[in-house]
Amino acid sequence: MKYTRLTKEQFEELHPEFINFLATQSITADEWQKIKVEQPKVAEDELDVFSDLVWEGVLQKATYLENISPQQLFLFKIAETEMQLISLKISEEGIDITTPEGYSWLQQNFAEDTVEFFTANKAFSKDKSGDIFKLIQQGAIITKGKLYQFFEKIITA
C-alpha cells in the first residue's frame, strides 16, 4: 500500500465508487460478502488497492495545501514540477492563529513587524504524489488556495 487506507467514513461516502471498483474486477455484491468471510486477506488487499486509487486521484488534482499551527502558516501551491511555499511566522506573544481571535488578529496585522513572510520553491522528487501526501501526513489540508492567492498578491505587490 502506497498511502493509507481510507477510513470507514470515507468508504461509506465512496460506496458507489467502491461498488464500481469491485465491478471492474468482476466481483458481485454476493461474491464480495463471501470474500470478506472466507478470504479476509484478499478483502483487505482490495480495500488497500481502492484506497490507493482514491488517494492517487485526489493527490493529482490537488493544487493548494495549507498547514496552520498556532504561530505559523504554511501555504503551498502545487505546480507541475515544483511546489511553491509562502510561510508566515507570528512573533506576537499570545497570538494563536488557529483560533478565530488569532486568525482575526492576523487578518488585521499581517503587515506588522511581528509577522514575517518567507517564500521558497522546491522541486518534486520522482514521486510527486508521494511528496504531496507527506505534507498531508504532517497536517496539511487540500484547499482552493484563497489564502495562498491573497498573500501572493501582497508579496508580489
Automatic annotation (TrEMBL):
Organism name: Rasiella rasia
Upper lineage: Bacteria, Pseudomonadati, Bacteroidota, Flavobacteriia, Flavobacteriales
Domain of life from the UniProt record: Bacteria
Listed name of the protein: Histidyl-tRNA synthetase
